[in-house]
Amino acid sequence: MNSPTPPAVTLLTRPGCHLCEDARTSVSRVTGALGLEWSEVDIETDPELVRRHAEEVPVVLVDGVPRDFWRIDERRLTRLLRERLAL
Questions:
Q1: Cα separation, 59 vs 68, whole angstroms
Q2: Which helix (H) or strand (E) element contains residue 63?
Q3: Residue-wise over 4-31: b if at least 16 C-beta within 10 A, else e?
């Protein structure tokens, strides 16, 4: 049986975002505990991301789907990722 593909965890941020540092810490803590990688994308590098997420930054995406924004709920993110890993 093949092991599931790890979830893609992406944190959308922007320069000067006061909530982004807390979000980085939360995402790093959760993914680290689960042995997962994550990436960060500055929305200012993509006009479409600015259009979609300008008022919601930071945003956590799991497999491209927005799952949380502004203040990251570590328990919810942990639960979502564990469920995704169990598939």
A1: 6
A2: none
A3: eeebebbbbbbeebeebeebbebbeebb
Phi, psi (rounded to 5 degrees) for 85: -70, -25
The set of residues, in sequence order, having a beta carbon less than 8 Å from that of 67 and lying 6+ positions away, is: 60, 61, 76, 77, 80
Among residues 59, 38, 39, the alpha carbon closest in space to that of 49 is found at: 59
**Which amino acid is it at 62?**
V
Q: Which amino acid is at 52?
A: R
Q: How confident is the model over 57-83, as pLDDT tens digits?
A: 999 999 999 999 999 999 999 999 999
